[in-house]
Amino acid sequence: MKRGVLILLVILTGLFPIRAQNGEERPPITRENAAQVVQLDRFGRGTAHAVTWSPDGQMLAVGGALGIWLLDVTDTESDPRLFEGHSGVVNDVAYSPDGSLLVSASQDGTARLWDVATGRTLRILAAGGLLGGAVYEVAFSSDGSAIVTGGVDGFVRVWEAGTGALRIEMINYTDMLQAVESVAFSPDGRVVAAGNGDQLVRLWDAATGDLLHTLDCYIGTIESIVFSPDGTLLAAGGSDGTVQLWDVADGTLIGVGGRHERGDVLSVAFSPDGTVLASSGSERAIRLWDAATGQQVRALEGQEFGVASLAYSPDGTLLASVSTASVHKVRVWDVTTGQVVREFDFSSPVWSLAYSPDGSTVAAGQDDSTARLWDVATGQETYVLDNRNGGVRLAYSPDGSRLACAGNYEGIILWDTATGEQARVLETDALLFSVAYSPDGSLIAAAGYDGIIELWDVEAGQVASTIQGQGEMIRALAFSPDGGVLASGGGAGGGMIRLWDVGTGRELRSLGENLISVYGLAFSPDGARLASGGIGGRMRLWDVATGQLVAESQLDASLFDSVSGVAYSPDGSVVVFGDWDGTVWLWDATTGDPLIGLLGHTDDVRGAAFSPDGTILATAGQDGTVRLWGVPVE
Fold first, then answer.
1. End-to-end CA separation in angstroms for the chain
2. DSSP reduced 3-state for 36
């Protein structure tokens, strides 16, 4: 619960239909009914983070933003199953040896044990410790009787799988707290290995908790460790790109198993026969090494980004991988040919959100350089627009015929929303963080890293004028409802909000003297107020005419808490802010009092937009999902 804020948090157990079954009209969201708002629908599979094979080699379990997806590798037509329950991203997942159970580690500070047949949570392990810190890694012992967890609090914990009781816990750091980034059970279940940021791997007696060996790796943060199938070797991958092999019996370094020239090593995996060691990381290739000689056997290439997680199939013929940030894909590789034989798409983080003026479509600008358009009524994805320019910021033209997409260095692409084809490209070298259409559709404002605001004449396809901005990067833009005023919000180096006269480019006034980065801005429908959110967890309402602060609330004492995804309801009674922890906050726009906090997202909420009639609120964020909210009707 947020400190200092008394508010009802809605925990969602199901989805409600977008259309009322009896034809009843859904009411607009207002301050009077905000407490009734629930989640209506969800678009996207969410981001993927970790992968493991079922013991029979038929299923892949993928841990991600929504929970755990079970993908049938043998059946291309089957729908994946989703196990939900965590309130945070799932960082790791592991099958029990007999395949009947799954265990998951999450940002929410818990590990969960699941029944694979039913998808039911059997027990919840408080693996994050007293403070409930994130749990990064989890593994079963070879006989399935024990589970080991590690996470941000620096403890390694061994649990009884049958009862969920804590068997033993070990502090895996010496002086300064270091998060446990990787854990593993030896094949015989007698030894637990753990690595963290102090460049050491510690081997513990799994029964007594006694420290057996400390391996001085000195390869940066130990991101991944794995025992060889016979238990004689331990492979460790570090943030400096090195893979090392160690003798488990005496704790001596055998040699360097391989090295990635660019970036860190995030995952290492032995083939089932122990002859090959696979490694991956920020580099856009999976490398296969001869475990005896350390020589590279093959490189699996063709990745758009790095690879965060690897897992061999039980027979050793296939290797599953999960891409790192931006392009979230699960790929299955034939290790003999180096070819991809199966591919599963997951959602990329969403940077911005826009509702079409007719209310039929929601557009999401995603980190994989695409804009995805969803039909609100059916939940079907209608278009995937490839922008080729990084994180996409979006704005609909007032008549809905164009969608403007801006990002990295390739200009502003205007898409025809009826055909999904490019209508025009407004070429600019600027790194853009924000884009906005004027209310009459004649201008597009765009700004970013260099702090310069460009005002484009849409019909002419050229810059009509520039505003020199605020001498710092600009992360947020918003036109007033009459189009006469443009608000801009600053990024690193200061968070000043400035109001500009669109016709002359003259600065009208600045709002606030000690703001940190501003991530979101929205004018009230009557133009009298401006809502802002940014780093520091502060939500503010400003009087546009006087520049005075009308209301303010800080979500958390943390300096790093951030607020974005700012939006006003069409009637002006509710203002929405998206929180870094996944909460969607609805405020009374007159008094600044909190109305409700909606739970559903498992990561930073980046975008929010109301439908034109105010009946549906769309939100999107880092978890790779778009969620629709409204007042339920029968």
1. 31
2. helix
Whole-angstrom distance, CA of residue 328 vs CA of residue 304: 10
Amino acid at 578: G
For residue 252, the tally of other CB atoms under 10 A from its CB is 10
CA distance 133 to 306: 26
Using DSSP, state whether 490 is helix, strand or coil.
strand
CA angle 329, 332, 334 (to 5 degrees): 145
pLDDT for 342-391, tens place per residue?
Answer: 999 888 889 899 999 999 999 999 888 889 999 999 999 999 998 875 65
473 contacts 448 by C-beta, under 8 angstroms: yes
Full-prediction pTM beyond 0.85? yes
- 3-state SS class at 331: strand
Distance CA 313, CA 195 (A): 24
* Beta strand ranges found along 474-593 (DSSP E): 474-479, 485-490, 497-501, 507-511, 518-523, 529-534, 538-543, 549-554, 563-568, 574-579, 584-588
Residue-wise pLDDT tens digits, 285-296: 899 999 988 889
Q: Are strands 101-106 and 90-95 parallel, antiparallel or unpaired?
A: antiparallel
Q: What pLDDT score was predicted for residue 256?
A: 76
Strand locations in 65-153, DSSP E? 68-72, 81-83, 90-95, 101-106, 111-115, 121-125, 135-140, 146-151
Strand ranges (E), 12-165:
38-43, 48-53, 59-64, 68-72, 81-83, 90-95, 101-106, 111-115, 121-125, 135-140, 146-151, 155-160
Residue 349 carries which side chain, given as an amino acid letter? P
Residue 272: partners with Cβ closer than 8 Å, 6 or more residues away: 229, 312, 314, 315, 316
Instruction: Determine how β-strand 9-10 pairs with β-strand 594-598.
Output: parallel
Strands (E), 206-349: 211-216, 222-227, 233-238, 242-247, 252-259, 265-270, 276-281, 285-290, 296-301, 307-312, 318-323, 329-334, 339-345
> How much is the mean pLDDT over the chain?
90
Query: Is residue 35 helix, strand or coil?
Result: helix
